[in-house]
Amino acid sequence: MFEKANSQHTRPAQTVLPMLSSATMNTQTPSSPERVDFIREIVAADLRDGRCQSVVTRFPPEPNGYLHIGHAKSICLNFGVAQEFGGRCNLRLDDTNPVKEEQEYVDSIMTDVRWLGFDWGEHLYFASDYFEQLYEWAVDLIETGKAYVDDLSADEIREYRGTLTEPGKPSPWRDRPVEESLDLFARMRAGEFPNGARVLRAKIDMAAPNINLRDPIMYRIVHAQHPRTGDAWCVYPIYDFAHGQSDAIEGITHSICTLEFQDHRPLYDWYVDNLPVPSHPHQYEFARLNLTHTVLSKRTLLRLVNEEHVRGWDDPRMPTLSGLRRRGFPAEGIRDFVTMIGVAKADSVVEVEMFEHAVRTVLNRTSLRRFAVLDPLKVVIENYPEGLTEEMEVLNNPEDLSAGSRSVPFARELWIERDDFMEDPPKKFFRLAPGREVRLRSAYFVTCHEVVKDADGKVVELRCTYDPDTRGGSAPDGRRPKATLHWVSAEHAVAAEVRLYEHLFNSPFPGTDGRDLFEDLNPDSETVLRGCFVEPALADAPIGETVQFERLGYFAADQDSASGALVFNRTLTLKDSWAKLQAQGRHDTA
Ligand code: ATP
Ligand code: MG
C-alpha cells in the first residue's frame, strides 16, 4: 500500500504477441527521424495547436536498484521526444522511500543514462528537493478539510479500504477536527511518534470505484536516514503524493509513464487540481517492455543479487544496463532495439532474440575481427622452418574496409579449435581430418598427416605440412579447400579465460505456470573456459569493447582483466535465430 504501482499486477498474458507481427511492428530503420507513435503524435499536436509552447519531459527512476533494459525504453522515449521536438528532458530521482534507496543506485543511474547516450544538462532533480514544498501542500490540504491524520494501523486501513466489488468504510478519524490533524501532522514531523503510529490521508471518497481514490495515504512516519536529507525528516510523502506535484514543480508538459500508473492518474489529477501548483502536467501511459527469458522487476533483480544467483547488479547475465554493458552490448544496439519495438498502449512480450538481433546488426558492422581459440588443439607444421615467424595481414572487418588490417604472427606451432578436427569425420564434416587439406585464414593451406594421442587415446597434437605457395590463403592452381579455420601461433598466443553466457532463465516466461521464478534459473547460464588462447592484438583489448572472435561470436574484455589474466565475456554467438525466423516468414511464436 505504501509502494508505487506494482508492475506485477499488470503482467501481460503469457503469449508472444502481436508486437512481433509485421502489421504492428515499427519496422522503420533505426536512424529514421520520423518514428511516429501515439506519444509523438500527441506531442506534435499539442505544439501545433498551442497547448504547450515547448516540450518538457522527465525520466523519473527511483534509486532503489540499477536501471534495466525496460528503463532504456522509457529513457529513449522521454529523452528522444524532448530531443526531436526541441524541448528538454529532466532526470529526476524519485527518492521518497529512504528505506530502499541508496547513493550507489543514484550514481549508477546517472552513469547508465549517460552511457546510453543521453544528457540532462543542468536538469538533475531529486524529489527530496521538494520535501518542504510537499509538506506545505499537505498542510494546505488539511487546512481546507481535504486531508486528515488517521490513527488506524496499516492492517486496519487495508481492511477498511474495501475491495473492487465493495465500497470502503470511513475511518473513525476521518472527521477529526482540522486543528487536531494540523497538530498531529506537525508532531509526526517533529518525531513524536513511532513508525506506523499514524498516517496522513487525503479525504476523497471511500466509495470511489477506483480504489486509489479511497482516501489514499499521503504521508507516513519513517524514522530512517535518507541518502540526501539525512535525518531532517521522519515523515515521507508516498510516491503518489510526490510524483504529480514534482512534475508540476518542474513544469513537465508530458508526463510519460507505464500502464500500471493509469489507474493512479485520477489521483494525480485530484492533487494538482486541489493544490496551488505552478502547472498542470498531463500523464500518458505506454506499455512497459517485457522480454522473454528475462525478468525486469527491480525487486526480483535485487533478489538475484542478494541471494547470489549472480555476482552483482553488473553481472553479464543481468538485464541491467550495467550488466549488458559489461557483457559487451553496445548502447547503439540498445537504442536501435527500442526504436524497432516502437511505443504502444497494449502490453506485450518481445522475444529476446529480437533484442539480440538488433545488437548483432550493430556489432557486425562495428566490431573488429580477431582470432581466438577456446578449446585448443596443437598443430605442428613439420615442413615449416623452426624459429621462423611470418606476419600475416588480416582484415580487421570485412564489413568495413576503413577498419584496415593487422598483422598476425604465424609460426610452426599453432593452436586450432579442437572441434575443427575429427579423426573419423562423418560425411558432412569438411574441416580438418587425416589426409585432408584446409585453409588457415589469411595464412596457408595445411594438410594433416599424423594424429598424436596420449596414453588415454585423447588426441593431443596434429602433425601437418603446409603448402608454401598458398601464402595469404589462395593457391596458384586455384584449388579451394572446403573449410577455412582460424588459428593462433602457440608461441605468440596470449592465454585467456573466456566466459560463455546463455539466458539466465530457461523458460521464456520465468515463474509462470505455477513454477517458482527461481526454479526457472538456467544452471548453465555461465560456463567458464580456462586455457583459451587469443591472438597478441587482444593482449590490451580495451575493457568493454566488443570484438568478433572469428567463427565463434562476439566477445568483450571483462573488467576482471584489469587484475592480470585476460578475461573475455561472450556477448552473443554469431547465430541470429530471430533473423532466420523472419526470413522464414514466421512472425510470431504462438
Ligand atoms: P520495476 O518495475 O523494475 O521495479 P519501476 O517502474 O519500479 O521498475 P522506476 O525506477 O520507478 O522503476 O522506473 C522509472 C521509469 O521507468 C518509470 O517511468 C517506469 O514507468 C519506467 N519503466 C520501468 N520499467 C519499465 C519497462 N519494463 N518498460 C518501460 N518502462 C519502464
Ligand atoms: Mg514498479
Structural class of the helices, strands and pairings? alpha/beta
Overall mean confidence score, pLDDT: 93
How many DSSP H or I helices?
A: 13
Q: Write down the Rg.
A: 30 Å
Q: Name the CATH superfamily classification of the domain at 372-486.
A: Ribosomal Protein L25, Chain P
Strand content: 15-25%
Specify the CATH class of the domain at 372-486.
Answer: Mainly Beta
CATH structural fold name of the domain at 372-486: Ribosomal Protein L25, Chain P
Uncertain spans, ≥5 residues at pLDDT below 50?
8-33
Measured between the Cα atoms of the first and last residue, the distance is 36 Å
User: Percent of residues in helical segments?
Assistant: 10-25%
Beta strand count: 25
Largest sheet: 7 strands, mixed
- Which ligands are bound? adenosine-5'-triphosphate, magnesium ion
Order of strands, widest sheet:
10-23-24-25-21-22-11
Q: Which architecture of the domain at 372-486 would the CATH scheme give at its second level?
A: Beta Barrel
Q: What spatial form do the alpha-carbon principal axes imply?
A: elongated
